[in-house]
Amino acid sequence: MIPALVNDELDVLRQMVPLDHLNILELGCGAAKLARDLMRAHPGNQYTGLEVDLRQHAANLTQPQEGMRFEVGVAQSIHLPDQSVDLVLMLKSLHHVPLDQMANALAETARVLKPGGHLYVSEPVYDGALNDIVRIYNDEGTVRAAAQAAVDQALAASNSPWVQVRESRFDMPVRFKSFEEFETRMMRPTFADHHLDDDKIARTRAAFLPHLKDDGAAFTRPMHVRLLQRRV
């Protein structure tokens, strides 16, 4: 059973998918923290991380790790052969795919997965105190709903290559030492320009500060995981 509060999402992935001797692809890998932990714990795997953010990609290349390679790429156009991957990870990344490309991204994922392979889609839920703060400067209500709708539509298609085999909802703790840390991590990511101005920053700070205690600000982020399998 997956607990209601999850500190490490790798534990969730382990419960859903055997993680040995796999060819793994991550779409929108970011800093690939979960993947790096996975590869240390399961060194027999091979991993490719695709990232569209050139600054993050450059940072990834400065931290080489055995069995891992990083490339620039997007989910809607994957430069890998058909049926070459055992597991695809999308960790808070499907909602970043352009709205008109989400279906293509899922189709490309199906193309590169081996029959019986898995797609692990983990998306933040549009709810909670942290979400209320973030939406002041970056309202993701539309894109998060579109990501779930894209998965639903891919499953419902008459010739769908997919079957959903697991689903889970849980909370993950998120902590910030200060508003300055929140601003750096959440408001000024390298992959997006949130068009910040003095008013947005002030309103976000005002919403954040009531949560700040002597030991920092603690939140929980509700998550929704769907595990799809490529039909044999």
Structure description:
This protein is of the alpha/beta class. It has a domain at 9-125 and 139-172 and 222-230: Vaccinia Virus protein VP39 (Rossmann fold), CATH 3.40.50.150. It has helices at 9-16, 33-41, 54-61, 102-112, 129-134, 141-156, 179-187, 198-208, and strands spanning 23-27, 46-51, 68-72, 85-91, 113-124, 162-176, 212-213, 216-230. The longest helix is centred in the middle third of the chain and has 16 residues, at 141-156. The chain is globular and about 50 Å long. It starts with 8 loop residues before the first helix and ends with a strand.
What CATH first level of the domain at 9-125 and 139-172 and 222-230 would be assigned?
Alpha Beta
How far apart the termini lie comes to: 27 Å
The CATH architecture of the domain at 9-125 and 139-172 and 222-230? 3-Layer(aba) Sandwich
Which value, in Å, is the CA radius of gyration? Answer: 18 Å
Unreliable runs, pLDDT <50, ≥5 residues?
none
CATH topology of the domain at 9-125 and 139-172 and 222-230: Rossmann fold
**Overall number of strands:** 8
Please give the count of helices: 8
The helical percent reads 25-40%
Strand content: 25-35%
**Largest beta-sheet details:** 8 strands, mixed
| Helix and strand composition category | alpha/beta
Q: Helices, strands, pairings?
A:
Elements: H1 9-16, E1 23-27, H2 33-41, E2 46-51, H3 54-61, E3 68-72, E4 85-91, H4 102-112, E5 113-124, H5 129-134, H6 141-156, E6 162-176, H7 179-187, H8 198-208, E7 212-213, E8 216-230
Parallel strand pairs: 1-2, 1-4, 2-3, 4-5
Antiparallel strand pairs: 5-8, 6-8, 7-8
Helix pairs in contact: 4-6
